[in-house]
């Protein structure tokens, strides 16, 4: 009798995990080379915060940056529904899109202009630089920058 009661109490807690946001509010968060920070949800980097990524930051939700974001590593967007990226003034070295959502629901929506320093990898999904009815955003790759994996169903 105690086991069903225990399970019943645990199930509502599991529901809350689906809406996770990692909020950095005034701290410094560092992902070292070779390390991966996996967030089952979104990342909110507030104005007084620093996010430094030399490894991989993988998220299934949005990335909203209002603080300092330095990413010499990879930002990996791997959700199953549309995701959004608000980079602030950050330049990221490598961005990978691997969104497993159904066609039309596997977008990475760019909410601000973005410079990718080296590599944009498209595994699955589309990178959209204009939200319907919104401002057209600029995606820049400097000389020598590469786009890998562009094809049907995976393009900018």
Structural write-up:
The chain is mainly β and 156 residues long. The protein has one domain (36-148). It has 1 helix and 15 strands; from the N terminus they run αβββββββββββββββ. The protein has one helix at 2-15, and strands at 20-24, 28-31, 36-39, 41-45, 50-53, 56-59, 63-65, 68-77, 83-86, 91-98, 107-110, 114-124, 126-128, 139-140, 146-148. Strands 2, 3, 5, 6, 8, 10, 12, 14 and 15 form a 9-stranded parallel beta sheet that branches. It is globular. It starts with a helix and ends in an 8-residue tail after the last strand.
Task: Give the overall shape.
Answer: globular
Report the strand count: 15
The main β sheet shows up as:
9 strands, parallel
Helix content: under 10%
Low-confidence stretches: 1-18
Oligomeric form: single chain
- Count of discrete domains: 1
Q: What order do the helices and strands follow? A: HEEEEEEEEEEEEEEE
End-to-end Cα distance, whole Å, is 56 Å
Beta-sheet strand percentage? over 45%
Task: Using brief descriptors, characterize the structure shown.
6-stranded parallel β-sheet; mainly beta; 156 residues; single chain; 15 strands
Describe the structure concisely for a colleague.
This protein has 156 residues and is mainly beta. The chain has one helix and 15 strands.
List the helices and strands and how they pair.
Elements lengths: L1 H14 L4 E5 L3 E4 L4 E4 L1 E5 L4 E4 L2 E4 L3 E3 L2 E10 L5 E4 L4 E8 L8 E4 L3 E11 L1 E3 L10 E2 L5 E3 L8
